[in-house]
Please model this.
Amino acid sequence: MKYNDKKIVALCGGIGGSKLVLGLNNILDQKNLSIIANTGDDFLHLGFYICPDIDTVIYTLAGVSNTETGWGREDETWKTLDVLKELGADTWFQLGDKDLAIHLFRSKEKRNGVLLTTITRKITNKFGLKTNVLPMSNHPVQTFLETEDGEMSFQDYFVRNKCKPKVINILFKSKKPVATDAVKRSLMDKNLDGIIFCPSNPYLSIDPILSINRIRKLIENQKKPRIAISPIVGHDSVKGPTSKLMKEMGVEVSSLSIAKHYKGLIDGIVIDHEDEQQAEEIREMGIEVKLSKIIVETEEEKMRLAKESLDFIKEIGS
Amino acid sequence: MKYNDKKIVALCGGIGGSKLVLGLNNILDQKNLSIIANTGDDFLHLGFYICPDIDTVIYTLAGVSNTETGWGREDETWKTLDVLKELGADTWFQLGDKDLAIHLFRSKEKRNGVLLTTITRKITNKFGLKTNVLPMSNHPVQTFLETEDGEMSFQDYFVRNKCKPKVINILFKSKKPVATDAVKRSLMDKNLDGIIFCPSNPYLSIDPILSINRIRKLIENQKKPRIAISPIVGHDSVKGPTSKLMKEMGVEVSSLSIAKHYKGLIDGIVIDHEDEQQAEEIREMGIEVKLSKIIVETEEEKMRLAKESLDFIKEIGS
Model:
């Protein structure tokens, strides 16, 4: 199959989802790939407007991400942070010197009234990418976690408290939960071939995107195939706190639960060979299943999973 | 003479004045030295609140300044600036990675409503200094230059335009030109031994301090000896654009002109041996003169000039 003429929208969070979008970016014509990125984790820190997921996506696609840590940039230094520590400033959020420049640039542009979508395009272009990396919103939509230790913002939960507090519920707060024009255009594109829910955390990375009603509706009403890649293998998540969170919220940790979570929004789901016994029950929900090896580490594996996803979209659409 | 029990207030700009305050800091008990620092060059850049003269003073006293450039920190890197350049941001102002941390810390504190005096003390303490580095004001007092190319801020003139525009006049703009409590206390201290005008640019570094009426009055009415160190040797300035500026404003470049400029505010002036022939005319103005070698490069020379200044204060006072 020829892949590079396919037009795809991917919904993506940070580290987990980036693995698949890197594969997609390598096999598609970049300008045909639109990535709707979660901005629910965005936060102000030391005066900077920080978009962790957008940065992870851009660094990954540009090939400058730190493959060891999974976040931040490769060949990074920490001079500014070291001096900030000496000064006794709040340094729970790791700010590398190169990384800092992106936050600084974005913050400056934001203060000048430039839309986050435009700023993101400027940064993407400077990294030599033609990929449409689209913030889900130009306005703040903030993920909060109701935990046994009280309500806290995503960064407080994820970074400062290292995901330790037990989660009761997840909330998305926004005064203006509107989809951007670029996001709407990407989802209404007549030449679109399909939508892919990346193997990101459904609750913390994809749900914030879906919390914007217009985006959810455009996906619900979409005629082109919509598939998800499960972030769960067996009874554990591939990456991050997904399984811990599911347990705390009383949800069985399985790809079946992921399929149930996305019911009405997806036509198919890619799950691991290991979970083949769940396929039947998922199919009974009207969701098609493709089995694959969904833990991908090398660039080749990421491209392989991306190709399989596109094949699956084609199968569903035909 | 015993120096370390002397209590001194020094008026200081950046690089030029720092040489003398380093000497003073080495021979005085640090807590007995108050440095009223020029904040007329302070500016907002990329969201940072930057105080070039305060930083130069602190870096110099802490022994972490870059002795080659005269500004910024030693062993500095430029990772953030490099990425900012790639992003096409405004990078005319050199921001080193370590230096950035100070601006970041100060800006954060400012946003939290902390007074510049308090922030400066925090930074000074973190660098292990007991010296009272005092911003002349907690409120913006901004130096502007009326030039043949139009009016411009200090940083635009000094850094961006490299002092090239011909200066017609200098203005200090402030909505609230009030002296800080710490500055007033230092100048009204009954145990004060004297005031030293450092060999900084009188027009761009000392005049902004004197533009705050209360400070000028407290110096005018001071009973303790007040001396200046001339920044001019022969017909040229020791450092920076002082002589260029004097010529453009129609002032003869000489230590005599400096003495005239400070008339009514100083009781004595230290000038270079080379300018001995000007001593008579200065003395006729009622200003005492001490001859010295005022170009100081090594730490020993800086301490020597500091000691001579304290000796001079003692001579005048006795």
In short: Residues 8-41+119-317 of chain B form a domain with the Rossmann fold fold (CATH 3.40.50.10680). The CA atoms of residues 112 and 219 of chain B lie 33 Å apart. Chain B touches chain A through 28 residues (CB under 8 Å).
